[in-house]
Each structure stands twice: as C-alpha cells, then as structure tokens.
Amino acid sequence: MLRRAGLGLLVGALLVAPSVATAGPALVFEPINGTVFYSEDPDSQWFPASLTKLMTAYVTFQALKAGEVKPDTMITCSQKAQAQAPSKLWLPVGGQITVDTGLRVLIVQSANDVAVMLAEAVAGNTDAFVARMNEAAQKLGMTRTHYENVNGLPQEGQVTTARDLAKLTRAIIVEFPEYADIFALSSIQVGKKLIRTHNRLLVSFQGADGMKTGFICDSGFNIVASATRDGRRLVAVVLGEP
Fold first, then answer.
1. What pTM did the predictor assign?
2. What angle do CA 225, 228, 229 make, to 5 degrees?
3. Whole-number Å distance between alpha carbons of 10 and 19
4. Which of 35, 97, 106, 157 is the most buried (most CB within 10 A)?
5. Is 110 a catalytic residue?
6. Are strands 36-40 and 26-29 parallel, antiparallel or unpaired?
7. Is residue 53 annotated as a catalytic residue, yes or no?
8. Which pLDDT tens digit goes with each residue over 196-229?
C-alpha cells in the first residue's frame, strides 16, 4: 500500500490527512481550474457505493435544465423504489414528493428509494436512466467508470475511480452552481421527519460545503469532501477507508 503522509502538508489547514498511512485511492484538486495537488492510485477502479448518487443528481440536474422535469414535479414511490434496501425515506407505494425535495433527500439521507423515484420520473425507468448515467460519464471523460444501478447498492460491474469522481464533482460544481446548497445541507425536514446528513464534516469541519459519502462492505468508507476557506475551495476524493 502506498503512503500518503504528504497529503496534510499539501492542503494545509483546509483538508486534513487521514491518520492511517495506508488506504485506497485518493485525489485532492481545485474544482474550478481542475489543478490536482495530490493523488494516490487515482485510476484504480473501486466500488463507488452511494457516491453513485452524485451522478444520479447530475443527470437529474441535466433533466431540469432541459425542462424534462421541474423542481415542483411530483415523483412517486413505485414498488421497485419501495423494495430498495436502506438507507431509505420509507415512503409507501404511491407516496409522492417533489423533485426538489427528492434531490435534497438523495444527498442528505442517501436514500436508495428516492434515487429510483427520481430515475423513473426523469427517464421512465431505471434502465433508461442508467444509460443516461453512462452516457454522461463518457462525455465527462470518466473512462474507467461504469454504472449498473442508480443508487450504488452492491452490483457487479458498478465501478469508478478517484480521478473519474473528481471529473464528475467538478462538472457538478462548474455546470450547476445553483444547486450548491443541496450538497451543503446538514439536515432536511420532510413532513415530520428530520433527516440528518451522513457527512459529518458538514457539522464538524470549518468551511465544509459538500459533497457526498458512500459505504458498502465491498468498498469501505468513501467520501467526496469539499471545503472553502478564505475564498479558496478544495475537494478531496478518498476511497476505501476502514
């Protein structure tokens, strides 16, 4: 395993180096100009887990921009959505929320059922939405990424890399700055439910403003973490931490 002892020195007070010297792929970059400050195994393929939902959000943003759906479009919980494994919003079949609420729950709660609801509303079914995800990945130059589902639940063939996730994150930040607040939310109220983020950096790290966490047993703990201090923003992609 490679050492990343220099990570903390490279990003100073903005992003903190892991305390363990061995880990999976990692990359630190500046999202506007794309400058990479640090990388370790950036092209090694990895299970993305719920970092998949960054692409689910990106494709939904594209659909909103194209007018295929609107923020107040209602999305419905189908039987397929209800059958997804947790984390979930736990809507009954036929239950509805807006696209805007769905995007916020997708990122804050990492809700697997809501990912399916958004996909079905945008593309008609999840297979068609996954095709859009893979098409978007190709256009962004994510050459070592392939999607099989919309939420990151374990499925053979669903892979990405730290470099590809950096490309996706940069696209979200540059192309859709109007949705930046979604990734910075520490909690969201849906009906009587108060849902808190899985990204604890948003409540514990000064300047943290995104993006997403992901975990399945096959991948370990993954994160795309963004923080801004003194007008400077950096993003770290870290995969496979214990």
1. 0.91
2. 135
3. 15
4. 106
5. yes
6. antiparallel
7. yes
8. 999 999 999 999 999 999 998 878 899 999 999 9
Token output for 210: 């995104």
Catalytic residue status for 226: no
Among the listed residues 39, 78, 87, 110, the single catalytic one is 110
| Dihedrals phi, psi of 127, to nearest 5 degrees | -60, -45
pLDDT digits (tens, 9 = 90+) for 125-136: 999 999 999 999
pLDDT at 23: 62
The Cα–Cα gap between 133 and 74 comes to 21
- State which H helix or E strand residue 131 sits in: helix 126-139
| Beta-carbon contacts of residue 58 (< 8 Å; ≥ 6 apart) | 136, 168, 171, 172, 176
Rg (CA), the chain: 17
Task: Average the pLDDT over 138-143 and give the result.
Answer: 98
Neighbours of 190 (CB within 10 A): 18
